[in-house]
């Protein structure tokens, strides 16, 4: 089994003590950070499929998530560069009712490396919290909403609508997460959608520097 396969297998099993060490070993062996990240994402995909099939339950998903987060910590310095430019402040959060944060954290990390100052509101973020953060922070140029559950798509729609109707200006609102589609993003009035963390950073820079 290659180091990358080992990383994937141990994320699947939720081995949070071993995963960071395996990620480091994979880096030391010359594996590309993006490939290692993809292996962990694929591992989480397997976890999701097993959950759907009723083979595992919420606690197993949680320990796999912890293992991936520990692996990402080791990977972070290798994924996130320092752009040396300032694109303003990005307020980011996972929408109300939704507790998934790994994807949101990856998006925040990529946005930070592109030149945004990050104000991370965490998970289960109400519209009110988004609005307060936009008001309370200087030079907010981007608001990013993440959502992983089909059941919280209405919350994303509501937050985007309320942010747009708030009268606050000077920023773009972008959305993403597994159940979000470009069509849905357009329908709810978001300024942009991206399928993953890397493309979110590209999109954000394009919007803010246009
Ligand atoms: Co949850 N969960 N979960 N879960 N969970 C999913 C999402 C699910 C697909 C599993 C499944 O059934 N196959 C399913 C959702 C089905 C649906 O609605 N379509 C599901 C469910 C049902 C649930 C519960 C309801 C289970 C229950 O209680 N019965 C429950 C809900 C709790 C809640 O939120 N209120 C629940 C709970 C949990 C845990 C807490 C146990 C845990 C999360 C821990 C954590 O995040 N700290 C968890 C996990 C780990 C998962 C899976 C297995 C993995 C998610 C993940 O981290 N993936 C997931 C199955 C899966 O994804 N295959 C699943 C890796 C991560 C890197 O990918 O988050 O997709 P992702 O992020 C991507 C893109 O989506 C994108 O970029 C990232 C990659 O670069 N992206 C953006 C994300 N946000 C973006 C914002 C952007 C742009 C791109 O803005 C511009």
Give the structure's gist in a few sentences.
It is built from 9 helices and 5 strands; from the N terminus they run ααααβαβαβαβαβα.
Keywords for this entry:
globular, Rossmann fold, 5 strands, 210 residues, 2 domains, Methyltransferase, Methionine Synthase (B12-binding Domains), Chain A, domain 1, 56% helix, binds CO-5-methoxybenzimidazolylcobamide, alpha/beta
- Count of helical regions: 9
Determine the structural class based on helices, strands and strand pairing.
Answer: alpha/beta
Characterize the main sheet: 5 strands, parallel
The separation of the N and C termini measures 46 Å
The helix fraction, in percent, is 55-70%
- Count of distinct structural domains: 2
CATH architecture of the largest domain: 3-Layer(aba) Sandwich
Reconstruct the topology from this structure.
Elements: H1 3-12, H2 19-28, H3 33-52, H4 58-79, E1 89-94, H5 102-114, E2 117-120, H6 127-136, E3 140-146, H7 153-165, E4 172-176, H8 182-187, E5 192-193, H9 197-209
Parallel strand pairs: 1-2, 1-3, 3-4, 4-5
Helix pairs in contact: 1-2, 1-3, 2-4, 3-4, 4-5, 5-9
The protein binds CO-5-methoxybenzimidazolylcobamide.
The site of CO-5-methoxybenzimidazolylcobamide (B1M) has 38 residues, from helix 3, helix 4, helix 5, strand 3 and strand 4.
Provide an overview of this structure.
With 210 residues, this protein is of the alpha/beta class. The protein has helices at residues 3-12, 19-28, 33-52, 58-79, 102-114, 127-136, 153-165, 182-187, 197-209, and strands at residues 89-94, 117-120, 140-146, 172-176, 192-193. The protein has a 5-stranded parallel β-sheet, with helices on both faces. Helix 2 runs parallel beside helix 4 (58-79) and helix 5 (102-114) crosses helix 9 (197-209). The termini are far apart. The model has no long low-confidence stretch (mean pLDDT 95). The protein binds CO-5-methoxybenzimidazolylcobamide. Residues 41, 44-45, 47-48, 51-52, 58, 61-62, 64-65, 97-104, 106-107, 144, 146, 148-151, 174-179, 194, 196-197, 200 line the site of CO-5-methoxybenzimidazolylcobamide (B1M).
